[in-house]
Amino acid sequence: MSTYSIFILISFLFGFSSGIEEGATMAAYDTIVVGLGAAGATAAGTLARGGRRVLALEAAARAGGRVRTERCGDGVVELGAEWIHGQFPSRVYDLAIQNNVTVRPQDLTFDIYRSDGARTDCELLNELMMYCLDVMEGLSDKPESLGDLITRKLKEYLQKNRPEVLKNQEFVDNFLDFMNLVVNNYEASNDWKDVSALSAYEELRGHQHMSWHKHGYKTFFEILLNTYNNGPGLPTLDIKFNTEVTNIRWPRDGTGDVVVTCRGGEQYTAPNVIVTVSLGVLKERHSTLFTPPLPQEKITAIDLISMGLIGKIILTFDNVFFSQSVLFYWTVDDKKRLPADDKWMLDISGATAPSGCNNTLTLWTGGDGAKLIETLPEDVVKRKVVELLQMFMGANVTVPQPTGMMRSTWYTNPFTRGSYTYDNLLMPQHPHIRETLASPLLDTAGTPRVLFAGEATDNTHFSTVHGASDSGYREAVRLLPASKI
Ligand SMILES: Cc1cc2nc3c(=O)[nH]c(=O)nc-3n(C[C@H](O)[C@H](O)[C@H](O)COP(=O)(O)OP(=O)(O)OC[C@H]3O[C@@H](n4cnc5c(N)ncnc54)[C@H](O)[C@@H]3O)c2cc1C
Ligand SMILES: *[C@@H]1O[C@H](CO)[C@@H](O)[C@H](O)[C@H]1NC(C)=O
Ligand SMILES: *[C@@H]1O[C@H](CO)[C@@H](O)[C@H](O)[C@H]1NC(C)=O
Ligand SMILES: *[C@@H]1O[C@H](CO)[C@@H](O)[C@H](O)[C@H]1NC(C)=O
Asked: Is the Cβ atom of 99 under 6 angstroms away from ligand 3?
């Protein structure tokens, strides 16, 4: 019997964990990646392509995380991320092109529909909305909220160009409510007064709404993991789905491996681990996830950055009764008439037609309403959203009964707890907070043991798939010698 098999026998007899302490050289993997969303799949793919032995542990039954492509008739719909936001420079766009996957620009010009079905004022509403969105794109030089910035600028604009409108206080307030909802749907915030107008976020160049249409965003993950077009996967990458990580014990003193424990009690070891769980998950369980506990500055970053929520309700119909993207403008009277139980309907900002599936409509939800919608009974949501569509879009048509409905549950989902992060009002005083979140935990020898990736850790491209992917690449590169990149 070789010393190796004696060791195995001894660790078997005396329990698995006793083997781990002495088993520093025994780890079967160079790196463990926790989570296989855009960050984790990029990190795992990059390391495995660099020849590293990688184990990816994913709590869900699939890769993708906040990207979730579902079948829909002959096509697909997206319950999570939908578009490639900008093309240059984008790892996501580049990989599509390099693999000959055609992604196409989707035209997202919105028509504004009113809750009373009337078409009055729509030109004015459009003009004011375009103005507000321009303000939002531009940078502020003051530390203030997006809500305050847009309100101030809009009033200046009206004063100069449409003083008669400015006199109608009720209209202006109602319009600002509408814009608040529109902005929340971009930022995933619950109120535009929580969002900083000073943000480090940078838009990529090129078209902002490139769609994977019938291919689905899932294709990005197939490319990363080399399973696209029946690819064989990556030889040095092991993936375990349905495997929830419950604890990560790391050797601060530099001796031995990181020990990752899963829900079923299984343990895996490696010299280092890349954690890619969402900020929502970190907020909820960092205190049990890490042993020893995270340093205070890391905890402060987790607490301070905001995780927002947007969601989708996707309806399928037998035939189309709509042609373009719409935003819902509630009149003051209709808002007042809405029963208390139905107030969540006010948090549905509009609808777009998914480009991967005909005869479907995606309603966009946000904020507290989006949280509630995730928990309401299926039949209630379905009935109410048909009422909503009838109210806004049904002046000349009867909205048909949907043949199917799907909705996202990004908040209820214990492995996401939200949709994506935004820069809140505290951020300008903490300009390096996302870097703090991203910084690896080093042992006493200065070796990175626990590394952090994920959308929230990217200072300029947070809240996107390309930002998440960049962060995974960033951490993989930290572990690879320059020659392997
Ligand atoms: C509705 C919606 C629309 C969006 N639209 C767009 C868009 O159009 N364009 C765009 O660029 N971005 C969009 N985004 C944002 C984008 O989806 C995210 O920024 C990105 O997918 C995040 O990737 P990630 O790898 O950081 O995190 P995630 O995708 O959350 O990956 C983390 C993974 O970790 C797993 N995990 C969590 N806890 C554990 C655990 N304890 N053990 C093991 N595994 C665990 C999760 O299951 C998940 O798979 C949208 C998001 C949502 C929700
Ligand atoms: C949608 O319909 C068009 C024409 O009616 C067709 O060319 C296209 O393939 C359909 N797309 C999907 C995803 O079914
Ligand atoms: C993409 O298409 C080009 C030109 O047809 C071809 O040379 C290349 O091998 C293709 N790449 C992939 C990954 O299929
Ligand atoms: C309904 O039809 C009338 C008459 O054709 C038109 O003026 C009005 O704008 C239409 N309403 C909607 C909401 O499309």
From this structure: yes
Has this prediction a pTM greater than 0.90?
Answer: yes
Q: For residue 166, count other CB atoms closer than 10 A to its CB.
A: 17
Nearest atom within ligand 3 for CA of residue 100: 1
Ligand number nearest CA of 211 is 1
Closest ligand 4 atom, CA of 113? 13
Closest ligand to 396 CA?
4
Residue nearest to ligand 4 atom 1, measured at CA: 396
Could you tell me if the CB of 357 is within 6 A of ligand 2?
Answer: yes
Contacts 24+ apart (CB under 8 A), 466-469: 466/84, 466/85, 466/86, 466/90, 466/91, 466/92, 466/93, 466/204, 468/37, 468/38, 468/39, 468/42, 468/276, 469/38, 469/39, 469/41, 469/42, 469/91, 469/92
Q: Are 147 and 191 in contact (CB under 8 A)?
A: yes
* Ligand 1 binding pocket includes 281 (Cβ within 6 Å): yes
Q: In angstroms, rounded to a whole number, what is the distance separating the alpha carbons of residues 481 and 14?
A: 37
Q: Residue of the nearest CA to atom 4 in ligand 1? A: 81
165 CB-near residues (< 8 Å, 6+ apart): 124, 158, 171, 172
Pick from 57, 66, 275, 408 the residue to mutate for probing ligand 1's pocket: most ligand atoms within 8 Å of its CB.
66
Centroid of ligand 4 to alpha carbon of 358 (angstroms): 24
CB 226 near ligand 3, within 6 Å: no
Instruction: Point out the ligand 4 atom lying closest to the alpha carbon of residue 117.
Output: 13
* Tens place of pLDDT per residue across the chain (485 aa): 444 444 344 333 333 443 344 444 457 999 999 999 999 999 999 999 999 999 999 999 999 999 999 999 999 999 999 999 999 999 999 999 999 999 999 998 888 999 998 888 889 999 999 999 999 988 777 889 999 999 999 999 999 999 999 999 999 999 999 999 999 999 999 999 999 999 999 999 999 999 999 999 999 999 999 999 999 999 999 999 999 999 999 999 999 999 999 999 999 999 999 999 999 999 999 999 999 999 999 999 999 999 999 999 999 999 887 778 999 999 999 999 999 999 999 999 999 999 999 999 999 999 999 999 999 999 999 999 999 999 998 888 889 999 999 999 999 999 999 999 999 999 999 999 999 999 999 999 999 999 999 999 999 999 999 999 999 999 999 999 877 77
